[in-house]
Design the sequence.
């Protein structure tokens, strides 16, 4: 790997050279970012377990994509049912709420101070915390000491639980929560996309062999996995391909 | 409240005087500790929501107890299905593993450095982290800024996720994870039993009107909610009543 993009700075000081005998858990939604993380992890750890969540998403095409991608990558895959939808509070799980269309200019960046008005209604309360907590349980059972999550500070939707300070705090907590922490088997939360733009993420994935036509990022994907092309998530994804001057293999329903 | 036991030191510097208009979420298993926390919270917050988990416990008598107790206390109650059992690794959810009988002398105390050998097989990987993460989601939706959990450093079973340093780290993470943290609506993890022995917890509960005959702590309770009297949890509970010179209203199957 000679391209600097294939070795983005992880959240910790852990280096690739001593990780080849170690195991990792990857949070895999089936979207562009998480699939890139899956291939990044596969390239560097001995064993990778992908974990996806069935949390009352409007369509399950994302989960179908996750399953196919994990199979294709040849990694173990767990789908965990979780009960977030009954809690309400998000347009992604509450079908009475409207998912907003995208406006790329309004997205905060890592240099902004986000405020409540900038948090869109697609935010699911405590979602990444719940996801990472399950990943922590899987990491204990599979003796993994890396959890990989595809958050980014550069092109993100303004969710508080994507910020580096949040990820660092979760890592500190996780090392106090578990047997691993007690026995000195330190757990790392790896965020290989943290400093990458969407275009750089796609370039990284291309170099690792990701087939982006199979990934689904859209909040409103139809039952055949075709993207709407206009929601926040589609807007960010489209801009990534376009900024990088890369062909966009996404299947759009509007096309 | 003049009894010092009714105002144990919480994990934070938050005082009772400014909490009467605030909301709380209480983790309610149906056991002695969590029911004491429920009554402690009811005594001090404007609105309390109790949250219980259906996680493949061997018997659901604990959940039935939780439901009855929440009804009797007149608080909202949510039961959330979670999918820990499929992960394996604990005798509480893996029915092929044997739950050990209690040996009160072997329990670590807050002055011990716990090690892996001291962690019993009743430990469920990342359990408190998953429970607290869901409580965090409920707290966001119900606009609560207190989550109450009945962990104790004094009489505990050697689980890493009951230690004060773990709770403090979760609180730091939680305040970075959520809208609440972004808007300065600070979230507190309250641990009113942290410095109390089991006997002191029972004294606190008695002063608040808890009916301990209704609570179930046993890891092996039968389908009618009767306790085995010999598992770790029963051993700690029995010792609490006995150390405090208090009548034990627990219904034992062996009696």
Sequence:
């Amino acid at each position: 790997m000679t391209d600097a993009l294939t070795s983005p700075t992880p959240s910790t000081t852990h280096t690739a050279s001593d990780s080849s005998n170690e195991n990792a858990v990857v949070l895999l939604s089936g979207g562009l970012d998480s699939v890139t993380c899956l291939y990044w992890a596969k390239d560097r750890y001995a064993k990778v377990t992908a974990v996806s969540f069935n949390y009352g998403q409007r369509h399950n095409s994302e989960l179908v994509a996750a399953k196919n991608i994990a199979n294709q990558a040849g990694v173990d895959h767990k789908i965990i049912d979780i009960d977030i939808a009954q809690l309400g509070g998000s347009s992604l799980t509450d079908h009475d709420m409207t998912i907003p269309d995208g406006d790329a200019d309004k997205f905060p960046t890592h240099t902004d101070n986000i405020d409540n008005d900038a948090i869109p209604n697609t935010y699911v309360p405590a979602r990444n915390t719940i996801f990472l907590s399950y990943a922590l349980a899987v990491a204990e059972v599979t003796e993994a000491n890396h959890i990989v999550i595809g958050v980014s500070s550069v092109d993100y939707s303004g969710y508080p639980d994507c910020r580096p300070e949040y990820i660092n705090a979760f890592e500190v907590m996780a090392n106090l929560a578990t047997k691993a922490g007690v026995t000195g088997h330190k757990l790392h939360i790896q965020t290989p996309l943290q400093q990458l733009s969407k275009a750089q993420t796609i370039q990284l994935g291309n170099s690792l062999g990701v087939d982006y036509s199979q990934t689904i990022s859209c909040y409103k994907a139809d039952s055949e996995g075709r993207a709407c092309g206009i929601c926040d998530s589609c807007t960010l994804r489209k801009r990534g391909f376009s900024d990088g001057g890369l062909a966009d293999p996404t299947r759009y329903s509007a096309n």
Summary: Residues 20-244 of chain A form a domain with the Rossmann fold fold (CATH 3.40.50.620). The longest strand of chain A covers residues 47-54. Confidence is low (pLDDT under 50) at residues 1-17, 104-116 of chain A.
